[in-house]
């Protein structure tokens, strides 16, 4: 089926309307009529070529929520009419130790990314800035009732990308967690860490968004442009989640960790981050990374959000505003996730 979409024709070029082909619904597939697609900074890195060459034209979008329109003959876990979500991956080998362990995102053969990836039939995947998508049912999540569809979309990437390391590194009561950068990922990290019971501090470039940060669940808020911040918070945190899309002075942030603390990087700038060994040695500190989360964990995160009344703070836009939204994300002027209303693509 031929469907409407928004695509980047080449690296760094503005997105424009186009049509793309979606495969026929196979026995294990689900056809989703897309309602909303979030704009992740990863979409911008990809189309701007920050992460290397891409198979243009690229239809970005890996924060997809919609309604099941058709299911294949062998699909049992989703039914026509169900509200569902698709995140950053649409397939993996399903047989390696990582897939079997629920970490499909680290599939040894490589997960199939939702866009600009190579699908198992050799075709290039195209993402959620479109009206419909066909996805293997095993990679389609159930969006629980109680979370509005537009607010649920960003959970599929921003939500799971912050939930997974917060859980793994034990965010909870008695633990001090700092979130660096209050954008799409950062604002989800604040909500989730707060709901997990941790003491949450936002480290933002300025105090412009302080009121929002405290409303979202932060206990404290500091500007990193103020050098006193680093002196005042030295050795304070058990866990720091860095969500910044640009290079930061990692050593300055490592100095804010307590002994045995961890700085987990989810931000994925093009440029390398220089870590001074002494920043780790003096304090038995860990510098780690984390990529999205597995399928079961993503469902767990969605259920956790429904239970705690958590959704993303979104600004819903029409598809023709996507390029303007990209500019605003690049200028750190997003509160806190742009979400495309896919009805405006029809
Ligand atoms: P975003 O909405 O643009 O948020 C990033 C925030 O970082 C900004 O709002 C800003 O917060 C801060 N920031 C931006 N430029 C900065 C600079 N030069 N110096 C200091 N702080 C700066 O982006 P996002 O969608 O949350 O994504 C963030 C990063 O995570 C991107 O690199 C993205 O590709 C990556 N990502 C990784 C994964 C994964 O699996 N690991 C998944 C999704 C996204 P303040 O205004 O508060 O300072
Ligand atoms: Zn993303």
UniProtKB/TrEMBL annotation:
EC class name: oxidoreductase
EC number: 1.1.1.2
One term of GO molecular function: alcohol dehydrogenase (NADP+) activity
Keyword Transcription regulation in record: no
Alphabetically ordered keywords of this record: Metal-binding, Oxidoreductase, Zinc
InterPro entries the record matches: ADH-like_C (IPR013149), ADH-like_N (IPR013154), ADH_Zn_CS (IPR002328), CAD-like (IPR047109), ER (IPR020843), GroES-like_sf (IPR011032), NAD(P)-bd_dom_sf (IPR036291)
Reaction(s) catalysed (UniProt annotation): a primary alcohol + NADP(+) = an aldehyde + NADPH + H(+)
Pfam families: ADH_N, ADH_zinc_N
Domain Enoyl reductase (ER), chain residue ranges per copy: 12-340
Cofactor entry: Zn(2+)
Similarity comment text for this entry: Belongs to the zinc-containing alcohol dehydrogenase family.
PANTHER family: ALDEHYDE REDUCTASE
Name of the protein in its database record: alcohol dehydrogenase (NADP(+))
Species in which this protein is naturally found: Geodermatophilus pulveris
């Amino acid at each position: 089926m031929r469907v409407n979409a928004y695509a980047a024709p080449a690296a760094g070029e503005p997105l424009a309307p186009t049509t793309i082909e979606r495969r026929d619904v196979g026995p294990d597939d689900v056809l989703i009529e897309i309602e909303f697609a979030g704009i992740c900074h990863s979409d911008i890195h990809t189309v701007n070529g920050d992460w290397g060459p891409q198979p243009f034209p690229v239809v970005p979008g890996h924060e997809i929520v919609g309604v099941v329109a058709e299911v294949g003959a062998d699909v049992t876990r989703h039914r026509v009419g169900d509200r569902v979500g698709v995140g950053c991956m649409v397939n993996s080998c399903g047989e390696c130790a990582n897939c079997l362990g629920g970490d499909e995102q680290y599939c040894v053969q490589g997960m199939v990314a939702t866009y600009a990836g190579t699908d198992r039939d050799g075709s290039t995947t195209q993402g959620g800035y479109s009206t419909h998508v066909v996805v293997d049912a095993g990679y389609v999540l159930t969006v629980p009732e109680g979370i509005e569809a537009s607010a649920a979309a960003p959970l599929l990437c921003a939500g799971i990308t912050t939930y997974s390391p917060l859980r793994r590194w034990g965010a909870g009561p008695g633990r001090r967690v700092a979130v660096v950068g209050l954008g799409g990922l950062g604002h989800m990290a604040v909500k989730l860490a707060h709901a997990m019971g941790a003491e949450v501090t936002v480290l933002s470039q300025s105090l412009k968004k302080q009121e929002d940060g405290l409303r979202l669940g932060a206990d404290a808020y500091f500007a990193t442009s103020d050098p006193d911040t680093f002196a005042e918070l030295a050795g304070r945190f058990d866990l720091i989640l860095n969500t910044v899309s640009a290079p930061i002075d990692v050593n300055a942030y490592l100095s804010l960790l307590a002994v045995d603390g961890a700085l987990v990087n989810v931000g994925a700038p093009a440029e390398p981050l220089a870590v001074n060994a002494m920043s780790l040695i003096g304090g038995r500190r860990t510098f780690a990374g984390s990529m999205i989360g597995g399928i079961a964990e993503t469902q767990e995160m969605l259920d956790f959000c429904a239970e705690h009344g958590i959704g993303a703070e979104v600004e819903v836009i029409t598809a023709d505003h996507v390029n303007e939204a990209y500019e605003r994300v690049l200028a750190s002027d997003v509160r806190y996730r742009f979400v495309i209303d896919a009805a405006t693509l029809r």
